[in-house]
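Quick log. Single chain, no ligands specified.
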Amino acid sequence: MIQFIKFGVIGILNTIIQYIVFYFFYSIFGLYYIFSSAFGYFCGVLNSYLLNRSWTFKSKYCNKRKEFAKFTIVNIFSLGINLIVLELLVSYSVFRPEIAQVFAIMFSMVANFVGNKFWTFNSSVSE
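-> predicted structure:
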């Protein structure tokens, strides 16, 4: 439970980073909402890796490249979920992209926690 709370705190920070970057590029620069969302998502990835590695999961795995590769794969999968939900909500509902993004983040956050807890930072499967 403590891990989930820590993950949630980091997730809130990363969500704020993602949304600010998304909103900035979408609303100010007029960049297409899907590209704005993807850019925002990747802005939080490095911060997320460092904080989750050291604070949430306290990884001691020495092969940081392999671990970061796994982390990146989980995040690409989570981003895919985020973008699919965002596109569905914008295309098939009355949600504006700024609101739909909030719901899309919720779906991708769950996928991200599960992937990182049970694959990326799980020492029994890291080797």
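Helices lie at 2-28, 33-56, 64-92, 97-120, 123-126.
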